[in-house]
Amino acid sequence: MIGLPGETRPILRAYSLASPCWDDGLDFYSIKVADGALTSRLQKIRVGDTVLLGKKPTGTLVLDALLPGRTLYLLSTGTGLAPFASILRDPDTYDRFDTVVLAHTCREVGELAYGKMLVEDLKNDPLIGEFANRLTYFGSATREPHIHQGRITDLIASGEFFQTIGEEVFDRTRDRVMICGSMNMIQDTRSLVVDAGLTEGSNSMPGEFVVEKAFVD
Ligand code: A2P
């Protein structure tokens, strides 16, 4: 949880940590809502301002909840990219998986910029740079022309996603999947991977896929 002091009580919202676990700083990735209770103010903070931070992080998008496999798919929409910004900069990810595929779908092309920049920067990262050639990026936009156009769910179903990245369809013996986006995106993407035969994992019983639970009913 991060937030700001309010007039009567603090305004706090659940955010994913976008920075890797070894980093001294903490990164967060947020939309900016002009009249939003928190982000209308959060976007204007300056050095020296107070930001509130919950003491206990929780979450389901952790490597320990996945069984070993060959390829790790990180499927995201919008700011659902945030937890994967952390995972793709964690050396442990490349210890556990041969290949990592980051998929990011946004409404507009410009919104893909942060994810693309992270992937580009990885090549020059002193800690992770050597693994950069094991990461594949797939971006798509839904409301503007783009080389890949459409929702990730539709592009998985049509085969365009797998064809572009040069992989076979999901296979539970080999592939592991993490899913983060809006509630509807999570539900629809989960259905696809369940139909492909993958089972959901947790810390106590690792499986073949996990979804972000912070805002899933
Ligand atoms: P679309 O433009 O077709 O709604 P949002 O900002 O609403 O969370 O959307 C971010 C991205 O996620 C958009 O590209 C949006 O596509 C896509 N999206 C929204 N709902 C779903 C869903 N149920 N499954 C897959 N992608 C979705």
How would you portray this structure in words?
The chain is α/β, with parallel strands linked by helices and 217 residues long. The chain contains 7 helices and 8 strands, in the order E-E-H-E-E-H-H-E-H-E-H-H-E-H-E. The strands form 2 sheets. It has a 5-stranded parallel sheet with strand order 6-5-4-7-8, with helices on both faces. The chain has a 3-stranded antiparallel sheet with strand order 2-1-3, with no helix packed on it. Helix 5 (152-158) runs parallel beside helix 7 (183-195). The longest helix has 13 residues, at 183-195. It is globular and about 55 Å long. The relative contact order is 0.16. The protein binds adenosine-2'-5'-diphosphate. Adenosine-2'-5'-diphosphate (A2P) binds at residues 77-78, 105-107, 142-143, 151-153, 181-182, 184-185, 188. Adenosine-2'-5'-diphosphate is lined by residues 77-78, 105-107, 142-143, 151-153, 181-182, 184-185, 188.
